[in-house]
Fold:
Amino acid sequence: MSSARAPERIQTVVIGGGQAGLSVGYHLSRHGLPFVILDAHERIGDSWRKRWDSLRLFTPARFNGLAGMPFPASPNDFPTKDQMGDYLEAYAERFQLPVRPGVKVERVTRRGGTFLVSAGERLFEAEHVVVAMAKYQEPWVPPFARELDPRIVQVHSCDYRNPAQLQPGGVLIAGAGNSGAEIARELASQHRIWMSGRDVGQLPFDLGGFAARLFLARFMLRVVFHRVLTTDTPFGRKVRPKMLHAGGPLIRVKRKDLSAAGVERAPKVAGVRDGRPELEDGRVLDVANIVWCTGFQPGFSWIDLPVFDDDGLPIQNRGVVANEPGLYFVGLLFLYAASSTMIHGVGRDADYVAGVIRSRVSATRAA
Structure:
């Protein structure tokens, strides 16, 4: 008797049950196409719930609703990460999206004209596969971190939850982006903080301020990030490589906030000397803790298909992979626009990909 697994045949497999995957599911459902959403978390929305305790979204609630369901909060509120997780769970329930939680995809490959999706003991065969995940899959820490004194507490931002994880003494925040700035300000009341890394810039206004509520936030998020900075515009194509490799500007926590909290800015961490972190200017910091806000690697090694560039990012156009027909990506940073990873922007990319799938299914049926 053969031990080979019999694959479950589904027209479209969506990998990832966060806002990107649920958006794809919503639009596929509207087209009347069969699909399933596979998510590694045990509960819909856990990709948000498992982030640090004090995290709030960077955008007001008016920008945080997916297609068909506004976010249930005052338009100018900044929702907590738990509120966002609960919203996604309610969204999937409202539109009866076929999410299968606790299913971690381990491999995607192609067999003939279909894709094989392996997830533990489960095997799926699909004509279309949508990878609905951000590139933030594998936390990256510089290799020299293992040379640090073992008495220094080290934690990556993806594992940071609250100040109780750290020991008394100074803290080095390695990375000066939004996560680093948010965590630095939270810890500054209890520790001496150094935040290292280059200045990434900042939005020139306060998202929670009166002017932003009336005009600036809407203009920046709906117009600049969503319509100006796209792969269809010369300016967008110029800015895109910088955003992919350098990240975006500070959104909520600004330079003045960090300065007021007593956070000391420092150059990038360059290495280790005598078990302590050494900065690019040669200084050695005697700290008790390091929070690595150094980003992530794409983490798509489980996709066993030749679709990636030298940086590990998929070669695609608006999420459609030309050299592997039937494979798509949604949720990536600047997939099509600067808003592609934002909740108010991911729906447009999902709608586009779902439309391509519908067209290809129709063409196949006609043939």
Q: What stands out?
A: The chain has a mean pLDDT of 92.
